[in-house]
Amino acid sequence: MASIVGQVDGVIGRLNAWGAPLLQLAIRLWIAKVFFTSGLTKIQDWDTTVLLFAEEYKVPLLSPDVAAALGTTFELGMPVLLAVGLFSRLAALPLLGMALVIQFVLGAANPAYDSVEHVYWMFLLLTIVVHGPGRLSLDGVLRGLCRNGKRNAT
Fold it and tell me: Partner of 118 for a Cys bridge, out of 70, 103, 109, 133, CB 3.0 to 4.6 A?
Protein backbone atom coordinates (compact mmCIF):
# COMPACT_ATOMS: atom_id res chain seq x y z
CA MET A 1 0.00 0.00 0.00
CA ALA A 2 2.83 2.38 0.87
CA SER A 3 4.41 1.84 -2.57
CA ILE A 4 1.14 2.78 -4.32
CA VAL A 5 0.90 5.96 -2.25
CA GLY A 6 4.53 6.72 -3.11
CA GLN A 7 3.87 6.20 -6.81
CA VAL A 8 0.78 8.42 -6.72
CA ASP A 9 2.78 11.08 -4.86
CA GLY A 10 5.46 10.84 -7.54
CA VAL A 11 2.93 11.31 -10.36
CA ILE A 12 1.33 14.24 -8.55
CA GLY A 13 4.74 15.78 -7.97
CA ARG A 14 5.61 15.54 -11.67
CA LEU A 15 2.21 17.00 -12.63
CA ASN A 16 2.80 19.90 -10.25
CA ALA A 17 6.35 20.44 -11.47
CA TRP A 18 5.40 20.53 -15.16
CA GLY A 19 1.66 21.09 -15.30
CA ALA A 20 1.25 23.91 -12.80
CA PRO A 21 3.65 26.33 -14.55
CA LEU A 22 2.02 25.60 -17.92
CA LEU A 23 -1.45 26.11 -16.45
CA GLN A 24 -0.36 29.38 -14.81
CA LEU A 25 1.07 30.57 -18.13
CA ALA A 26 -2.14 29.63 -19.96
CA ILE A 27 -4.25 31.50 -17.38
CA ARG A 28 -2.09 34.62 -17.69
CA LEU A 29 -2.12 34.57 -21.50
CA TRP A 30 -5.86 33.92 -21.79
CA ILE A 31 -6.95 36.64 -19.36
CA ALA A 32 -4.40 39.05 -20.87
CA LYS A 33 -5.91 38.48 -24.32
CA VAL A 34 -9.44 39.16 -23.03
CA PHE A 35 -8.54 42.55 -21.57
CA PHE A 36 -6.01 43.59 -24.22
CA THR A 37 -8.53 42.96 -27.01
CA SER A 38 -11.05 45.12 -25.16
CA GLY A 39 -8.47 47.89 -24.80
CA LEU A 40 -7.67 47.78 -28.51
CA THR A 41 -11.36 48.17 -29.28
CA LYS A 42 -11.53 51.24 -27.06
CA ILE A 43 -8.63 53.07 -28.74
CA GLN A 44 -9.98 52.45 -32.24
CA ASP A 45 -12.64 55.12 -31.75
CA TRP A 46 -11.92 57.28 -28.73
CA ASP A 47 -14.97 59.53 -29.09
CA THR A 48 -17.27 56.52 -29.05
CA THR A 49 -15.40 55.10 -26.05
CA VAL A 50 -15.90 58.29 -24.03
CA LEU A 51 -19.55 58.37 -25.10
CA LEU A 52 -20.00 54.77 -23.91
CA PHE A 53 -18.49 55.67 -20.53
CA ALA A 54 -20.86 58.66 -20.36
CA GLU A 55 -24.00 56.76 -21.34
CA GLU A 56 -23.60 53.04 -20.72
CA TYR A 57 -20.46 52.28 -18.63
CA LYS A 58 -21.26 54.83 -15.93
CA VAL A 59 -18.59 54.34 -13.30
CA PRO A 60 -19.40 55.93 -9.94
CA LEU A 61 -17.15 58.79 -8.79
CA LEU A 62 -15.29 59.15 -12.12
CA SER A 63 -16.00 61.42 -15.05
CA PRO A 64 -16.46 59.59 -18.38
CA ASP A 65 -13.14 60.97 -19.68
CA VAL A 66 -11.19 59.78 -16.64
CA ALA A 67 -12.97 56.41 -16.50
CA ALA A 68 -12.33 55.82 -20.22
CA ALA A 69 -8.67 56.78 -19.92
CA LEU A 70 -8.07 54.65 -16.81
CA GLY A 71 -9.98 51.67 -18.16
CA THR A 72 -8.19 51.75 -21.49
CA THR A 73 -4.79 52.24 -19.87
CA PHE A 74 -5.36 49.29 -17.56
CA GLU A 75 -6.73 47.13 -20.39
CA LEU A 76 -3.68 47.78 -22.56
CA GLY A 77 -0.92 47.93 -19.93
CA MET A 78 -1.74 45.25 -17.38
CA PRO A 79 -2.19 42.43 -19.94
CA VAL A 80 1.32 43.06 -21.27
CA LEU A 81 2.68 42.65 -17.74
CA LEU A 82 0.60 39.50 -17.26
CA ALA A 83 1.70 37.99 -20.57
CA VAL A 84 5.39 38.31 -19.74
CA GLY A 85 4.79 37.62 -16.06
CA LEU A 86 6.25 40.84 -14.66
CA PHE A 87 4.70 42.28 -11.47
CA SER A 88 1.89 39.83 -12.21
CA ARG A 89 0.11 39.94 -8.88
CA LEU A 90 0.05 43.73 -8.96
CA ALA A 91 -1.02 43.77 -12.64
CA ALA A 92 -3.95 41.45 -11.91
CA LEU A 93 -5.44 43.77 -9.27
CA PRO A 94 -6.75 46.59 -11.52
CA LEU A 95 -8.19 44.01 -13.92
CA LEU A 96 -9.87 42.29 -11.00
CA GLY A 97 -11.29 45.66 -9.96
CA MET A 98 -12.59 46.21 -13.49
CA ALA A 99 -14.22 42.78 -13.55
CA LEU A 100 -15.88 43.51 -10.20
CA VAL A 101 -17.23 46.84 -11.49
CA ILE A 102 -18.45 45.26 -14.72
CA GLN A 103 -20.24 42.46 -12.91
CA PHE A 104 -21.59 44.15 -9.81
CA VAL A 105 -21.95 47.84 -10.70
CA LEU A 106 -22.77 47.74 -14.39
CA GLY A 107 -24.48 44.36 -14.01
CA ALA A 108 -26.74 45.76 -11.30
CA ALA A 109 -27.82 48.58 -13.61
CA ASN A 110 -28.05 46.55 -16.82
CA PRO A 111 -28.71 42.79 -16.93
CA ALA A 112 -26.66 42.55 -20.14
CA TYR A 113 -23.51 42.99 -18.01
CA ASP A 114 -24.52 40.35 -15.48
CA SER A 115 -22.54 37.43 -16.86
CA VAL A 116 -20.96 34.34 -15.38
CA GLU A 117 -17.99 35.01 -17.69
CA HIS A 118 -17.02 37.97 -15.50
CA VAL A 119 -17.01 35.70 -12.47
CA TYR A 120 -14.64 33.34 -14.32
CA TRP A 121 -12.36 36.31 -15.02
CA MET A 122 -12.40 37.13 -11.31
CA PHE A 123 -11.44 33.58 -10.35
CA LEU A 124 -8.59 33.51 -12.87
CA LEU A 125 -7.30 36.90 -11.74
CA LEU A 126 -7.57 35.84 -8.10
CA THR A 127 -5.56 32.73 -8.97
CA ILE A 128 -2.77 34.97 -10.24
CA VAL A 129 -2.98 37.21 -7.16
CA VAL A 130 -2.95 34.29 -4.70
CA HIS A 131 -0.59 31.83 -6.42
CA GLY A 132 1.51 34.19 -8.51
CA PRO A 133 2.47 33.83 -12.15
CA GLY A 134 4.47 30.62 -11.80
CA ARG A 135 7.98 29.69 -12.89
CA LEU A 136 7.35 30.47 -16.56
CA SER A 137 7.36 34.22 -15.96
CA LEU A 138 9.79 37.08 -15.53
CA ASP A 139 8.70 37.21 -11.89
CA GLY A 140 9.77 33.56 -11.56
CA VAL A 141 13.09 34.22 -13.28
CA LEU A 142 13.78 37.24 -11.07
CA ARG A 143 12.83 35.27 -7.96
CA GLY A 144 15.29 32.55 -8.96
CA LEU A 145 18.04 35.09 -9.60
CA CYS A 146 17.44 36.69 -6.20
CA ARG A 147 17.59 33.31 -4.47
CA ASN A 148 20.81 32.42 -6.26
CA GLY A 149 22.27 35.82 -5.41
CA LYS A 150 21.50 35.31 -1.72
CA ARG A 151 23.09 31.85 -1.78
CA ASN A 152 26.23 33.19 -3.45
CA ALA A 153 26.46 36.07 -0.97
CA THR A 154 26.58 33.72 2.03
Answer: 103
